[in-house]
Recover the amino acids of this structure.
């Protein structure tokens, strides 16, 4: 089960991993916390009045195309996008949005989804949300709460029969190590790297809070990931940042998607190359 804040997040974080496991016969469910109703239109070709007027329905249709491409199941928690407040100081979040929901209210439908789907592994964001969007931070909070509560019959008693997932991971998609490797590979190939300014913003010697513990080989599914990304046409510009690095360069320089093992109820040895390490010995997938 991969828990995400908005439609398109599932295609930009961990999509090739999901496609790899689907190809291996694993059932995969994406849970999307909000409808992305307050997201900006980032593709100039889609920046049209009729799209803006019905952005919620448009993003729902985009999600349907992406989940078909990835081969996953997908469900909505039904909360309202919080938007990303900008300014100094930033404006208050809109009333009724996902990030302002009480934790138990926001977690209850996810606990129900966990108990219904019965995943062995859950994926989510770190405590900063991957980046500090209010919905991403809230997604982290509800995912951790659901992981800890879903197996306890005394918690969320109206949310179905208890089920305890065995491992919880954080996405480490944009690690400094990966960016450096892709940057070097582009320069070696004689191509202009899109990461120059990004690297300048990173402090020298900066150490990430969360180490990468798990690298999942999934280069054969990078093309599927990109097709799923392109399905989110309001968010993804086909001429934009996501597609500057050729797939053959990516496959050679960094053929994995990376994670931090935040919680495990099974024995496993680090580093891992499989989200199900320690689980395969206990259950038949």
């Amino acid at each position: 089960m991969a828990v995400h804040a908005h439609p398109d997040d599932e295609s930009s974080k961990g999509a090739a991993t999901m496609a790899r496991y689907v190809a291996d016969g694993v059932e995969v469910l994406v849970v999307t916390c909000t409808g992305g109703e307050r997201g900006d239109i980032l593709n100039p070709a889609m920046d049209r009045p009729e799209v803006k007027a019905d952005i919620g329905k448009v993003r729902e249709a985009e999600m349907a195309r992406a989940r078909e491409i990835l081969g996953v199941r997908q469900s909505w928690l039904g909360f309202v996008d919080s938007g990303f407040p900008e300014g100094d100081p930033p404006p208050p979040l809109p009333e009724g949005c996902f990030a302002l929901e009480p934790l138990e209210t926001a977690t209850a439908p996810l606990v129900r989804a966990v108990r219904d789907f019965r995943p062995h592994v859950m994926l989510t964001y770190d405590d900063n949300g991957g980046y500090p969007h209010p919905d991403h931070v809230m997604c982290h909070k509800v995912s951790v709460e659901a992981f800890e509560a879903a197996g306890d019959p005394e918690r969320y008693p109206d949310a179905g029969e208890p089920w305890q997932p065995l491992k919880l991971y954080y996405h480490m998609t944009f690690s400094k190590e990966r960016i450096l490797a892709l940057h070097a590979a582009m320069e070696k190939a004689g191509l202009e790297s899109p990461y120059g300014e990004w690297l300048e913003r990173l402090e020298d010697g900066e150490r990430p809070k969360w180490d990468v513990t798990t690298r999942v080989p999934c280069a054969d599914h990078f093309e599927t990931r990109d097709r799923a990304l392109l399905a989110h046409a309001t968010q993804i510009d086909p001429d934009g940042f996501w597609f500057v690095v050729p797939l053959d360069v990516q496959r050679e320089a960094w053929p994995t998607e990376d994670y931090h093992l935040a919680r495990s109820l099974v024995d496993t040895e680090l580093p891992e190359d499989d989200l199900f390490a320690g689980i395969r010995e206990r259950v038949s997938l």
Q: What stands out?
A: The radius of gyration is 19 Å.
